[in-house]
Amino acid sequence: MAKKQILLNAFNMNCVGHINHGLWTHPRDNSVDYNTLGYWTELAKTLERGLFDGLFIADIIGVYDVYQQSIDLTAREAIQLPVNDPLLLVPAMAAVTQHLGFGVTSNLSYEPPYLFARRMSTLDHLTAGRAGWNIVTGYLDSGARAMGLQAQDAHDQRYDRADDYLELLYKLWEGSWEDEAVRRDKAARVFADVSRIHRISHQGPFYQLDGYHLCEPSRQRTPVLFQAGSSDRGQQFAARHAEGIFIAAQDKDKTRQLVADIRRQAVAAGRRAEDVKIFIGIAAVVGQTQAEAQEKFDDYWQYASAEAGLAHFASSIGVDFSRYGLDDPIEYGGSNAIQSAAKTAAANQLTRRKLLERFRLGSRYPTLVGDAASVADELESWVNEVGVDGFNLSRTVTPESYEDFIDLVIPELQNRGSYKTAYAEGSLRHKLFAEGDRLPARHAAAGYRPR
């Protein structure tokens, strides 16, 4: 029986400090060049050399201003500030690659759906079907204020809004233009058959629209849909819409239960358990030997900032940790931010001291430190024993962390039969699911196609 193939995304952001904070100060790190095209095109070529399935680009609207009630540490340590638009990077990277997928984060709370539908269709055209969208609803009050609102919607209401937003987008992407609408007939002077282009009317609880999708159908029509959210309402949303789901993972037993719950809910929504690919976030510090990897880790953490990691986490869950002593019990309740992260922290009674220890490399992500064999062992364990499908690999020191992983871990996984040795042809969706370019008939979007 063939081994399950591990899926792999590079996890990045159009900024200096993304997940492993403080490492921008390392002498070999080049993340301060994030605002140049060459930084991104070289990264894309490197990832394609490693046969990565995709580059997943995170984003936020707002700033991290909960810790110390200011952006002082955020600005000094470049904690996702400054941050540039993720989508504008993709065409340049697509031009220097053939297979690498691109998952861009866009906050639907602040994006008019009619214009966003055009932007993503355009991206799917320009990448020849390699576009994905990470659906987020926001979690920063600072972002809501910057967008002219007094506060963001309540947590569950943000998902109610997202359901309405997705229904509208499905109508545009899947229902406005039939496949046969575009003829490109020069002799007859008919580019498109108007009888196969349909006016869309949407009167939802949050969004209203009357018009036609501005784009002809792209290869995938609907981009591959990613989502991160482990709250009860987030899981309900993912079970209906998401194709790739990102979850936070520290404990294998708890993660195994969460994975099973997500797949069970997908089946209850009329889909198959394998219709969702589940990813966890990790970092890896890899060496030719275990000793070399540990030496590299010890070098890295001298430049990392655990306090910056704490400031990032403070805004993620809406708790100002600077108000607490190192060992004081922390009140985690009442947040309107990332509920699942707050719930986990409360359940583990994480104090400021424990959090700083956990964020030793500037991040709350699990960090694998070892030679290729030991790192591959751990990755296979998460896939085979816990049931996840793949990983979002965050950067530590750029670009060497990705280069080390590609040069050492990828060949080890390939020798074990756990990782592909060549890309499949086709769109990003077909590469991930081997069922064609379009969403399957059992997905909610299919109900909005012309009959």
UniProtKB/TrEMBL annotation:
Residues 31-389 form the Luciferase-like domain. Keywords: Flavoprotein, FMN, Monooxygenase, Oxidoreductase. SUPFAM superfamilies: Bacterial luciferase-like. It comes from the Bacteria. FMN binds at residues 59, 105, 155, 159, 230-231. GO terms for molecular function: monooxygenase activity; oxidoreductase activity, acting on paired donors, with incorporation or reduction of molecular oxygen. InterPro entries: Diverse_substr_monoxygenases, Luciferase-like_dom, Luciferase-like_sf, NTA_MOA. PANTHER family: ALKANESULFONATE MONOOXYGENASE-RELATED, C2H2 FINGER DOMAIN TRANSCRIPTION FACTOR (EUROFUNG)-RELATED. Belongs to the NtaA/SnaA/DszA monooxygenase family. This is Coenzyme F420-dependent N5,N10-methylene tetrahydromethanopterin reductase. It comes from Aquitalea magnusonii.
